[in-house]
Specification:
It is a single chain. The protein is of the alpha/beta class. The protein has helices at about 5-25, 35-45, 110-130, 150-155, 210-225, 260-285, 300-310, 320-335, 370, 395-400, 405-425, 430-440, and strands spanning about 50-55, 65-70, 75-80, 135-140, 165-170, 175, 180, 185-195, 195-200, 230-240, 245, 250-260, 285-295, 360, 375-380. Strand 3 (about 75-80), helix 3 and strand 4 form a beta-alpha-beta unit. Helix 3 runs parallel beside helix 11 (about 405-425), helix 5 (about 210-225) crosses helix 6 and helix 7 (about 300-310) runs antiparallel to helix 12. The chain is globular. The mean pLDDT is about 95.
């Protein structure tokens, strides 16, 4: 491991953990990350970066993007972080349910916001120590959970200058260099407009938007039999009436339509839109839909994946305490209802699985695919959670708020920093990444 990177972490790990804790203690939903933006920006300024903050789209009341850069010229190493939280996943940092009202970091993005920032700062230290030419850019991105943030950033050209991009995400599974393909996703809102009426006296005067929304959902249930394997359709109510004695004139839904290819996602979306039109026709209402976000499938760069794994092999293994292993044991029993079938230490995996060079279908989605289609991109999944624990769950909030999560953020950051250093020392490797990138569809 590069000695300047190692020294930086010896001197600054406490401050990285504190940054992570600040973000965890002040969770913010997608597009509302004002505190996280300000806190991360201040931290990066203290590390000597030139920092710019701004709202990712028009209409926001406060900045929620951080662009921090140091150095000059080529190559430009991009490191990607996130910091939005999830609704209703507030939880104390304990291994049993202890809800805190409001959002929580049930996907561990507070760890990404801090750990990836640390990677950029440690890489800067190595560049200074050896007077390496090049630029490191840290981008703290909002609204990953709604798959919006990086789409707006991409439209503004914020990834265009990067030569490569490196990222990390916590995971309750065996750590890996990501080589599965995320699902293409269309995120849409559907609004139904009817006519309000008094339900007891003159219901015939009303046109129920709620009836239309429910008929749409029923129609989609029947559609599930007739879509391609792997298509996923999820929905939730954005607006529904609370009073039963009123024929409601307005209702709104949010739909995610996922598939292994963009075309399959669009095909399913078109059929859902036809169902929405039919529901409106049946109820005498009107429907409007609007795209919130749209992401493609992954573009895996095997060359960069191998370089990232080689960098991992240069970093000393992560070490967990007995207290952390006990925490993991109790959490596993609480969530699964059974004792773990492996030793407590195995609940906190250390070894990173080597890439195979084969792309396999994945089940989730991420707006990091915007970056993957712009520049060669590689990222690590793993660390910061307990083996077998689901994401988007109070268990992730719990570990993200204590030393297991913080230790994972520090370790993943070391790997990213080491990879950035290796690329700067051997810029011909970046060219090899681009050669593969250009060969792909």
């Amino acid at each position: 491991m590069n000695q300047a990177i190692a020294r930086w972490y010896e001197e600054n790990s406490q401050w990285v953990a504190e940054l992570s804790q600040k973000l965890w203690s002040h969770p913010e939903l997608a597009m509302e990350e004002a505190y996280a933006c300000q806190t991360v920006a201040q931290w990066m300024e203290e590390q000597g970066f030139q920092v710019r903050t701004f709202p990712v789209k028009e209409g926001l009341q406060a900045p929620n993007v951080v662009q921090a850069r140091w150095g000059s010229g080529k190559p430009v190493i991009g490191i990607i972080g996130e910091y939005d939280a999830l609704a209703d996943l507030g939880q104390e940092a304990v291994p049993h349910p202890a809800p805190i009202q409001g959002p929580g970091h049930g996907c561990g993005h507070n760890l990404m916001g801090s750990g990836c920032a640390a990677a950029a700062a440690a890489l800067k230290a190595a560049m200074e120590a050896e007077q390496l030419p090049g630029t490191v850019v840290y981008l703290a991105c909002p609204a990953e959970e709604t798959l919006e943030g990086k789409g707006y950033m991409d439209a503004q050209g914020l990834f265009d200058e990067l030569d490569v991009a490196l990222a990390w995400h916590p995971l309750g599974g065996e750590p890996m260099v990501v080589e599965f393909s995320f699902m293409a996703t269309n995120n849409y809102t559907f609004e139904f407009f009817g006519k309000t009426a008094q339900a007891g006296a003159i219901p015939w005067e009303g046109r129920s938007a709620l009836d239309a929304a429910e008929l749409m959902n029923i129609g989609v249930q029947y559609l599930r039999e007739h879509v391609k394997d792997g298509v996923r359709m999820h929905y939730g109510y954005l607006s529904a009436p609370s009073a039963a004695n009123i024929v409601p004139g307005y209702a709104a839904l949010n739909y995610y339509v996922r598939a292994h290819t963009s075309q399959d996602s669009l095909d399913a979306l078109a059929r859902i839109q036809d169902i929405a039109l039919g529901a409106a026709k049946m109820t005498g209402t009107r429907v409007e839909w609007k795209k919130v976000s749209s992401t493609g499938e992954s573009k895996v760069n095997h060359t960069l994946n191998r370089l990232l794994y080689a960098s991992y092999e240069q970093v000393p293994p992560i070490q967990y305490t007995e207290e952390e292993k006990r925490f993991a044991h109790v959490l596993y029993e609480e969530v699964t209802g059974q004792a773990p079938q492996v030793p407590d230490g195995a609940l906190l995996p250390v070894k990173l699985t080597a890439p195979t060079g084969q792309v396999v279908p994945g089940a989730g989605s991420s707006d990091l695919t915007y970056v993957m289609h712009r520049v060669p991109t590689a990222w690590i999944f793993g660390y910061g959670n307990v083996l077998g624990m689901p994401g988007h769950h109070w268990a992730q909030t719990a570990t993200a708020g204590m030393s297991i999560g913080q230790r994972g953020a520090l370790y993943a950051g070391k790997i990213l920093a080491q990879c950035g250093y290796n690329l700067l020392k051997n810029p011909q490797q970046i060219q090899a990444c681009w050669e593969e990138f250009r060969r792909q569809k």
